[in-house]
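Ticket #4471: structure output looks truncated?

Reporter: J.K.
Steps to reproduce: submitted the chain below (234 residues) through the standard prediction queue, then opened the result file.
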Amino acid sequence: MGDVDLAGWCQLPSPAGAEVVAASGVDLVCVDAQHGLIGDDALLAMLQALRGTRVLVRVPRNAPDAIGHALDRGADGVIVPLVDSADQAAAATAACAYPPDGHRSFGPTRHAWAGADTSARGGCVIMIETLAGARDLPAILEVPGVDAIFVGPSDLALSAGKPAVPPLEDEDYAALLRSITRQCREAGMPVGVYCGAPAWAARYRELGFTWLTLPADHALLSTALAAALTEMRA
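Returned output as attached by the reporter:
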């Protein structure tokens, strides 16, 4: 994750749409199986369409079956939501690695026929999106196997008693984000954030984030459609 600047974000269950996102020039593509509309069949088809592109899957929960499911289908790594403690982070990293380093069940189906390293550990990106997770961040950063931190800004804002739309100019919320990014930078850990609008990117970088996502595919499509309609009706 250290070489990632911008990542695409897919929530629509469309292999062709995922290809368009990958072709835009992003450094990797995140497929959102937590809040997106992506079911099991669509996930496999999207991963097939994204072959040759680095892909992270945001799994629906921190559980070995969900994590192994994404990795066996060909994801390079997973984004694990709602991690509140170092123990939960350790459970996530263990689910990404085979024994003796973890407890992932061996069955790398797509990796086997795609010629990939079937013994490789899956990448593990830990989401910080609650005050509990932010408080335990120093211990989370020490967990072996954590490859990057990813902030869910809306859930973190709600956890802090703020509006769901990230209040980036709120001094207390900005200080919380700066504390997270400072600790990650001091630990040499990449720290990313979901960027719900392109206009927010400069502020997130000012707050110390080292990688950002684009807005979700459907949000970008809606924005482009609205702009085209306005221009063509003028």
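Triage note (M.O.): checked the attachment and the full token line is present. The beta strands are 6-10, 28-32, 55-58, 77-80, 123-128, 148-151, 191-193, 211-216.
Status: closed, working as intended.
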